[in-house]
What we know:
Strand order of the largest sheet: 3-9-8-5-6
Bound molecules: copper (II) ion
Order of helices and strands: HEEEEEEEEE
Low-confidence stretches: 18-28, 53-65
CATH class: Mainly Beta
Shape: globular
CATH topology: Immunoglobulin-like
CATH architecture: Sandwich
Structural class: alpha+beta
Amino acid sequence: MSPRHPTHRLSALLAVALVVALGLAACTRQEPEISVNEQVPAAARTEEEPADGGEENDGGGGEDSGDAVAIEAIDIDYVGVPDTVPAGDVTFALNNTGNLEHNIVIEELGDELVTEAQGGETAEGTVTLEPGTYTLYCSIPGHRSTMEEVVEAS
Ligand SMILES: [Cu+2]
């Protein structure tokens, strides 16, 4: 593989840009936290990874990420999906240790996108689950056949 084809790099950049754009569009509740961080030299700045997943709460309970239902995504499967979760506001933390993008969609909520994560990233999303049975799946084309789990909220 020689780097003779700059179009490959361009394609990769476009793909990244597209993914970022999609991600931003989907995460409407993300807040632009720029004011303070922008003044920190890039070298001194840590990557903006939500290390312990804190700041993306919707203002509901403050620090409820400790109660998050942690699900790992690999290529191509979910790992560690519990059989049951407590009904009510449920935060899912998707830890994507694969290379592909993965997400969590809940069929019974009108195929609501709970959260999505690029390879190597972790993302959280909170949904309100009435007691019942829910089907979680990854809506990336081709993934659902191996990424679908049933969860009971009670
Ligand atoms: Cu997937």
